[in-house]
Amino acid sequence: MASERKNLQKVRTMGQLVDGRRARTSAGALLELSMLEMEKTRLTKETQRLERRGADIRQRLEEIDAKQDRLKRFVAAPREAKPQESAAADLPVYAVPQDRVKKRRLCY
User: How far apart are CA 39 and CA 35, in angstroms?
Assistant: First the structure.
C-alpha cells in the first residue's frame, strides 16, 4: 500500500500541538480561548477575501461573455456595401479629448 501523500493541509505545526495541561487551569483555558478566537478571525477574513475574489472572477467572466457575443455578431453580420460603417456602429468609440492630448516636440 502506498503511504498517504502529504500536502499543505496535513503539515503539522507547533500551533497544532496541544498541551493537555494548558486547559486544566483557568489561565490556560483563557489562553486557548484567545488562540481559538484569533484563528476564527483569521479564517473569517480569509473567507471574505475569497468571496471578493470570486465576485471579481464572476464579473470578469461576464465581461468576457459580453465581448464574445459582440465579436460573434460582428463576424456573423452580413457583408453590406459599406461594411466599415455597419461594423463600427456596433463597437464603442473611445476618443481622447483634444485638450488632454499631450504634444511632444523632438529636440536634439
Answer: 6
Helices (H), the chain: 26-76, 83-90
- Determine contact, residues 17/11, Cβ cutoff 8 Å: no
Where b means 16+ CB within 10 Å and e means fewer, 32-47 reads eeeeeeeeeeeeeeee
pTM of the entire structure? 0.48
CB neighbours of residue 31 within 10 Å? 14
Residues 20-57 pLDDT 10s = 556 678 888 888 899 899 999 999 999 999 999 999 99
**Nearest-CA neighbor of 86 among 95, 75, 97?**
75
- Return the number of other C-beta atoms located less than 10 Å from residue 28's C-beta: 14
